[in-house]
TrEMBL record:
InterPro entries xref list: ATPase_Atu1862_pred (IPR014588), HerA-like (IPR008571), HerA_central (IPR002789), P-loop_NTPase (IPR027417)
Source species, domain of life: Bacteria
Name of the protein described by the UniProt record: ATP-binding protein
Entry keyword Nucleotide-binding: yes
Keyword terms of this UniProt record: ATP-binding, Nucleotide-binding
Helicase HerA central domain residues: 10-76
Single annotated GO MF: ATP binding
Coiled-coil residue windows: none
Pfam family, one: DUF87
Keyword Nucleotide-binding appears in the UniProt entry: yes
Amino acid sequence: MKIGIDMGLDGTGKPATMDLEELLATRLLVQGNSGSGKSHLLRRLLEQSAPWVQQCIIDPEGDFVTMADRFGHLVVDATRTEAELTRIAARVRQHRVSVVVNLEGLDAEQQMRAAAAFLGGMFDAERDHWYPVLVVVDEAQLFAPAAAGEVSDDARKLSLGAMTNLMCRGRKRGLAGVIATQRLAKLAKNVAAEASNFLMGRTFLDIDMARAADLLGMEKRQAEMFRDLERGRFVALGPAVSRRPLPIQIGAVETAARSTSPKLMPLPDTAPEAAADLIFMPGPEELRQAPRRHIPPAPTPTADILAQLTAARPSPQSQPTKTEGALPEVDAAERDRLLSAVMQEILEDPDAAYRSDAVLYQDFLVRCRIRRVPGEPLLLRAFRRGLAVARAGLDGEPEDGTAWRTALDLSKSLPDDLQGVFLLVARAAIERAPCPPDAALARAYGTHSSRRARKLLTFFEERGLLVIRTDFHGKRIAAFPDLDCETTASDPDAAETNGELPHAAE
């Protein structure tokens, strides 16, 4: 079925339409300086296509949340963890709900990480959920910068990788990228190059005009026309719009952004003496004690909500009456034994090391229900801590319990995903076993990269938690100053021994 999206009028006054099916297959790039009408264009496209296709809007300024009232979009507040955003994105694709991901209020690095997590969740959705989705990213230069900026390299790589996946590999997964940017020169070339449709608005810098003209197949002398374009006027080219450069005047929209352009208004007629009193003298309201600002409660993490939903509920028949007495107390030792058994079952799966903690946590909750583990289910943070200890391969407490408790305390200063690796090496030192090879460290971290595993040891050493030395045979030894122990020498390139620590030579 061919759907034509009415974008406005062309240069001759005729309706300018965009083929929606062709757009889903070929992607779109919108460029224009601030005030050229990019957001208005995106809003027109979204409003006209809303009845026909699922939409996902990455909104850094919160301008598109007004789409929710008129078209039923669900607003996803990005003030969540990356794991929560990834799971929400997967459910968005599963249930085909149009959403606006509101990044307003986050700093630049947080916006990049949140957008990367959400786009990653949509990209990694199960094949059965690969329905067509129009993914609109406003201010795309923030998420796919052409050069490194003030944000960390890790955040930039995550965001750039997600944008590259969207534009390069998203088509086969049903994801159609529509990206808008103020300057083409600030947008990564490998992201911009994947678009086959272009809508170029007003711009003034020579480098941006030249690049826009090049993308539209125009001569360099024609690039000057982009300086003269009025607000809301664009030059379109692409299989979804026109095979030749076509000027378009974008039509009206039904919704409006929360932020508007500033309007001039006359200044108040205030005498200088009165102005000084207004500025330097506190008003009556300030003299009274200001009421405490109501701080809304922090949103409950999705993992905690799922834990409450999956908790076993007693049937009405099994609830004790007043004469029956209270429920029996939970045997803490039995509960810990069952939890350890469930943890061990999960880690016995060869692929468990390469799954996210969020996925393992859901599996853990289900297994706890099957085994009828008494008591409240572990929260996600407690689960991660228990998983880190279990990944260290410890069955009971080592003979040197004091050193092991010190190692547990030291691990608390590390991020959750690094604690399992640290405890694995610490256990080897306490038991005077060979230092785990790179393959074992990589598996504990959930990666196949031995190079990354070696970087983890360097990170621990920089934090002063351990000291790495090499003997005369090129074998590695990890010493722990706080534990007063060290591992025996071992080859870092040795093969992993089924996830267990190799034994020292007799």
